[in-house]
Design goal:
The chain is of the alpha/beta class and 291 residues long. It has a 7-stranded mixed β-sheet with strand order 3-2-1-4-5-7-6, with helices on both faces. The longest helix is centred in the middle third of the chain and has 18 residues. It is globular. The chain starts with 10 loop residues before the first helix and ends with a strand.
Length: 291
Amino acid sequence: MAYSKPAVTGEREIAAFWEAHPCGDAMLGGLDERFRGDFEAFFASYDAARYKLESHIPRCLDELEVSGKDVLEIGLGEGAESEGLIRRGARWTGLDITSESVQRVTTRLALRELPHQRVLLGSATAIPVEDATFDLVFSHGVLHHVPDITTAQAEIHRVLRPGGHLVVMLYARRSLNYMLSIAVLRRAALVATWPFRSRVHSAMLAAHLANAEREGLSRYLRLERFVSASTDGPASPFARVYDLDRVKRDFPDFLVVRAHKEFMHAPPLPVHGLPGASYLGWHLWVQLVAR
């Protein structure tokens, strides 16, 4: 299968986006505006909201059987899965490309007195860890934002012990969200509102239209471009979607041992919670073993 290649966005631009838009903030309206720096209240509210929306995650973490294992988590967000892995017995180390996430997760672990190894600031393409350090690398919703995935997967392979596992959640190409919502409905909405763009009041739609006006509508609507702006907001600089063929291509140092889909999600369609996630879910969980 042939894949179109999006213009490669620099890692610095991606880091700047996530530094300014910490993963998960939009769910609660941000740490400062609503919680005024009350980290404990923020983390409690965030975890409740996250696991109400993505209720499959605790079960998926249980299935990893991390107790007693040296685990590296790449991409930390607000640290909900970090805490989950530690509470399940992992000897946990975390890595994130943004200082904001590193600070927040460090605060979470200190507030809740959770034992861990280190919280590191750095890139998945240059992991600041010695060879053969971990039994498992876990990354939820992060590696599809890494343009140089070939280098990142080689680095992950380097820090894993022989026979170590990589577990990733990647946006699913064969999903209702990608095939219908992103590829058809949202692009059609831009085309339909394009002649009236000066009168659009929706902030999200207006931001997409502003992107299209700046880049050119036809260029912006190319799927390899539009998907980046349709996963984590119109300002998101880079994302890709995966099926197993692309996983095998982008992770050549690994073999796929298990894959499953979760999370029926395709806004603006009201499909959350409906059956069919195992076939058309937005989250593709893949377990790989180092060659």
